[in-house]
């Protein structure tokens, strides 16, 4: 029993040391840039996830028109991924998990919903190509965010 308590204490001490080292490596400008970027990036996905639920009927109809199987479940599931991923990035709580949710959403949705190569109308094709490219850029942003070592500065503290 005593060994378990000692091992637990050693692990907690290591975690505190890692957090202190992580906080020390960030300069003021880097912290501000990361915090502002998190607000924009996380806020974008949080807003769009909420929009999935507020406009569920319209989103379900659009998904069905694109041939998405079980469109109602797909809209609810993707909305949840966006809300949880956006909140994670925004708060800095488990950001690798949050960016994984965002990345999975973008990988699944982008080729199905923005299949510009199947669109005949030139104007609609251009719109789909723009959205396809935008989603690829957002995927790149999620991958960059996933590469930022944890803990992120100015993250919401989570009790263990």
Explain what you see.
The protein is mainly α and about 160 residues long. It has a domain at about 40-145. It is about 80% helix and about 0% strand. It has 6 helices and no strands. The longest helix has 27 residues, at about 30-55.
The biggest sheet amounts to: none
Q: Terminal Cα separation, in Å?
A: 20 Å
Tell me the Rg in angstroms: 20 Å
Q: Low-confidence runs (pLDDT<50, min 5 residues)?
A: none
The residue fraction in helices comes out at over 70%
Shape label? elongated
Provide the structure class.
mainly alpha
Estimated share of beta-strand residues: under 5%
Instruction: Give the topology string: H per helix, E per strand.
Output: HHHHHH
Helical stretch count? 6
Please count the beta strands (DSSP E, at least 2 residues each): 0
Quote the average pLDDT: 91
Briefly characterize the structure.
The chain has 160 residues and is mainly alpha-helical. It has six helices and no strands. The longest helix has 27 residues, at 28-54.
For the structure shown, list the relevant keywords.
single chain; 160 residues; mainly alpha; 6 helices; 78% helix; 0% strand
Topology (elements, then pairings):
Layout lengths: L1 H23 L3 H27 L1 H10 L5 H21 L3 H19 L8 H25 L14
Helix pairs in contact: 2-4, 3-4, 4-5, 5-6
